[in-house]
# Entry
Amino acid sequence: MRLQVIGDPVLHSKSPLLHAAMLAELGLDVPYAPRVVRRGELPQYLAWARENGITGFNATMPHKEDLLPLLDEIDPAARAVGAVNTVCLRDGRWVGFNTDGGGAVYALRDGLGLEAAGLTAVLLGAGGAARAVALALSAAGAERVFVCNRTPERARALCAQDPLGRLSPAAFDPATLSDLAGRSQLLVNCTNLGMEGCGHFQDFSFLGALPPDAGVFDLIYHPAETELLSQAKRRGLRTLNGLPMLVGQAVLALEHFLDRPLDRKAMAAAAADALRREGT
# Structure
């Protein structure tokens, strides 16, 4: 059994660290290594991987969407999201999964003590990460998820993909965000605003409309505390960055690789401990 993570760039990925910690916790001597695969090289990589004993791999940018037409089978949840981040060789067939949304739901439960079921949330953004998180929240029983995006067409397109009808498109202006925040128990940032070199929110007034016991979840983890989270803390709100989601999706990916359920709390604890030791 050999595992990898592919992408371009990929050497910065935390996946080898997380999976090494979890595999060690399980007492398994399974190699997991990064491999640079450039856009357009996926067909050659899949052939090489099959010939060289790769039994599974994680995929990061730019391959999450490009893998879809190349795989033999795609999990329904991954097809709904339109992206794959975990691929397993099962009976000689490449099977694709997406663990991002499940990782987010896990992080909310573990890091903020929030269950998705019955939740009303404001979700900022309509890209790939937003799609995964929004659909996962809906599938987990959220009552309503307001998808706010500067381009209304993208928000409407995302919401139209939800077969359960629990997603609603909305605008991104401060007045709309404040109105929706006042009706929500959770705000999730799926944009790159706050990431180093990617700009910042111009107005944080909508945070003041959230209920006192609400949570603010920012998928960004570099920096560890974005200005959004800092502003939320000043208002006494519970906050969470993207590291617990990173851990959660890795735990779910390892379950796919091993094709069996794991003690998720033990795996998450091992992965989180590895991040702490590294100083992340």
User: Anything to note?
Assistant: Residues 243-258 form the longest helix (16 residues). Residues 96 and 229 are 33 Å apart (CA to CA).
